[in-house]
Design goal:
Chain lengths: ~250, ~260
């Protein structure tokens, strides 16, 4: 049996509709937002700031600390109990490792850069959306970066290599089953910073998946850059009115 | 620092002005409510009050009723003050502030009888619906309590029952049946510094506040919840004045509940 047509009618190489924004959380030092289909991620960066407890400090460079969290009402099925789970812990540290190759924290010894990722709505591909939003947030915070990090889930559904799986595709129970492969890259350089997989996959299928991922990640990176440019083109009118008042 | 800020805000208030350029001590920032913002929730809403953004989502479960209320469903309110939304919030177990927000919003909804809990019974004494409202700020730019209360009521009014098959929930299928919403209680918080009573401070102004009084109100002006917070005392006259201010503001906020 072959997977002829995607459940939502998309082409096999076609991601869902995407929206990227920068500066959506004014209280944060930097923030980003990424929506892909019905998967939506907010990311906020706080820092560089003092790291406590002190023994966690690195006197040679700043420490990156990520926290991935689904809002309790965001999952398909039952309410997600608040607080960390084994799943959210793992996603948090693979997110750190996905972002670190892009970041240069050598100017911030003993400090921490906190990245908080929150998902209000999910339909698969949540760690990828979180990483993409986090990269926007880090750039928005003005931290030195070698490039942006972009992420997407690709995979095999039945006999097809597809880009950006939905929950419905992840749950595909036809012949061949599913392999789910979240990938993050610095798309400019084409280097992989996150790679996970569950399911069965042939080496040549992995090659095809990596190629397809790179193409979409270049599109995502363009959206991330556009979001950052758009934020800095905005004029802050509220700031103007305060100055007028005090003057 | 705080004292400098208090002096500054008072100079503004004497001129009927606010730090962010608003005119009037009881003027709210722009309010908006978006419904159905989280597809997996049974109901959801995103509330903006100025730069404050709060999400609320409703999830439903099937449980046994509490032994003392076998003929009623359950309502639970929880607030997650995510470290994403403010440099002052930390990850970990709920802070006092998170617990207070959840409990005061819960009090207004419960005592205001927003939901007819008797209509949440599936089998008396055996099976009832539990309605869980989670409140999650995305950006805390002040006056979280009012935004949380508005978001919770908006999410409730957006919610529909999921399908029930052989006594179990099929979360993939929502019915057209809305929750038994029978009243629209809302909280309005009146903030105090010196002799001034103000509404809807942004986070800068909020730091200068010495006391607050949250008032839960029904459509006809009946009070359904009260909570005095922070250290400053209120005179009885101030309490009554605050209730009057809250009434007008609650009517304003209730216009945004459109479902």
């Amino acid at each position: 049996m072959v997977y002829e047509k995607r459940f939502d009618g998309r082409g096999f190489d076609e991601p869902r509709v995407m929206i990227a924004r920068a500066g959506v959380i004014p209280r944060a030092d930097g923030s980003g937002y990424f929506k892909i289909g019905n998967t939506e991620a907010y990311a906020a960066v706080y820092g560089p700031r003092s790291l406590y407890p002190q023994f966690m400090r690195d006197p040679t460079k700043g420490v990156l600390r990520c926290r991935y969290n689904m809002m309790p009402f965001a999952g398909a099925g039952e309410r997600v109990r608040p607080g960390t789970s084994r799943r959210s812990k793992e996603i948090s540290f693979v997110t750190e490792n996905a972002l670190l190759p892009a970041l240069d924290l050598s100017a911030f010894p003993n400090a921490v850069v906190d990245v908080f990722i929150e998902l209000p709505q999910t339909d698969a591909g949540t760690r990828a959306a979180g990483i993409t939003a986090a990269a926007i947030a880090l750039a928005d915070a003005g931290l030195p970066m070698r490039g942006l990090v972009s992420a997407i889930a690709v995979g095999r559904v039945g006999d097809k290599i597809v880009v950006d799986l939905t929950k419905e595709e992840e749950d595909y129970d036809g012949e061949g089953g599913v392999a789910d492969i979240p990938i993050a890259m610095l798309p400019d350089e084409g280097v992989v910073t996150l790679l996970q997989m569950d399911g069965f996959l042939k080496p040549e299928e992995l090659e095809e998946a990596l190629e397809k991922a790179r193409k979409v990640l270049l599109q995502i990176e363009a959206l991330q850059k556009e979001a950052l440019k758009e934020k800095y083109a905005r004029v802050d009118l509220s700031q103007l009115s305060i100055d007028e008042l005090e003057g | 620092m705080v004292h400098d800020l208090r002096d500054t805000v008072k100079r503004y208030y004497e001129k009927d002005l606010r730090l962010d350029g608003r005119k009037g001590l009881t003027t709210y920032r722009d309010v908006s409510v978006q419904y159905g913002v989280s597809k997996n929730a049974e109901g959801s809403a995103r509330v903006r009050i100025g730069e404050t953004v709060v999400l609320a989502g409703v999830k439903m479960a099937v449980d046994t009723p509490y032994p003392d209320t076998p003929d009623k469903g359950n309502l639970m309110v929880n607030a997650e003050l995510t470290p994403l939304s403010s440099p002052e919030f930390e990850a970990g177990p709920p802070s006092d502030w998170a617990i207070e927000i959840a409990r005061v919003v819960d009090r207004a909804l419960r005592e205001g009888e927003a939901l007819n809990l008797k209509e949440l019974v599936i089998e008396p004494g055996e099976k009832v619906w539990t309605v869980i409202i989670d409140i999650v700020p995305v950006n805390d730019a002040g006056n979280l309590l009012d935004a949380a209360s508005l978001a919770a009521l908006a999410a409730l009014s957006d919610a529909r029952f999921p399908a029930l098959k052989d006594g179990r929930i099929d979360y993939h299928e929502k019915t057209d049946t809305r929750l038994p919403l029978q009243a629209k209680p809302l909280l309005v918080t009146v903030y105090k510094t010196g002799d001034f009573l103000i509404l809807d401070p942004d986070y800068e102004e909020e730091k200068a506040m010495e006391g607050r009084l949250s008032v839960g109100l029904l459509e006809d002006g009946t009070l359904c919840a009260l909570q005095k917070g922070w250290a400053a005392a209120f005179t009885p006259e101030e309490v009554l004045k605050a209730v009057g201010l809250a009434r007008t503001a609650a009517d304003h906020l209730r216009q945004f509940i459109t479902r």
